[in-house]
Design brief:
By secondary structure, the protein is of the alpha+beta class. Helix content is about 40%, strand content about 20%. Helix 3 crosses helix 5. InterPro entries: MepK, TAT_signal, Zn_M74/Hedgehog-like.
């Protein structure tokens, strides 16, 4: 039988207690991060349609709400909807958190069909030929009562994707592509 010195016994008890605390507290931290809900309200300025809902509840994306959001963000010219990247909704949610607002997000452009994107690219040099709008990974927005430069700065601070600033056109482009700004 091995005889432990009081100092060694103290060390082993301390390590055992630390292991027990970490096993008990880890699930608590994990569950806390997946509790609650994320809600958005959006207005499509072209169709005047509004969608509102908790798209994420207790760690789970809510398919019926996401489907409604995808329809709202459809290419209104071609009347074609596509699944939008869920990270885009998270970006909008965190942007509102950063700006400390729950105002309705005004949508200028969400999904774009390749035909619509090509048509817009021919009319304007500001439309990318391989736009992330065609992949459901970009959205052009404005938030009433918040200056565009503040929306731009808050989006850049998040470092969640690309941020384009179009003050003459009245919107900020955000996407979930690589981090960059223009």
């Amino acid at each position: 039988m091995t005889d432990f010195s009081p100092a060694r016994r103290q060390l082993l008890l301390g390590l055992g207690s630390a292991a027990m605390v970490s096993m008990i507290s880890s699930p608590a931290f994990a569950s806390r991060s997946t509790q609650g809900s994320r809600m958005l309200t959006m207005l499509n300025l072209h169709t005047r349609e509004v969608e509102k809902g908790a798209y994420w509840v207790d760690g789970t994306y809510q398919k019926p709400i996401l489907t409604g959001f995808d329809r709202l963000l459809r290419d209104h010219r071609a009347n074609v909807a596509a699944p939008m990247d869920k990270r885009l909704y998270d970006l909008l949610y965190y942007l509102q958190e950063n700006l400390k607002t729950r105002e309705t997000i005004h949508i200028i452009s969400g999904y774009r069909s390749p035909q619509t994107n090509n048509m817009l690219a021919k009319k304007s040099g500001g439309v990318a030929k391989k736009s992330l709008h065609m992949e459901g990974k970009a959205i052009d927005i404005a938030i009433p009562g918040i200056k565009l430069d503040k929306v731009r700065d808050a989006a850049k601070e998040l470092q969640l994707g690309g941020v384009g600033y179009y003050p003459k056109s009245g919107f900020v482009h955000v996407d979930v592509g690589r981090v960059r700004s223009w």
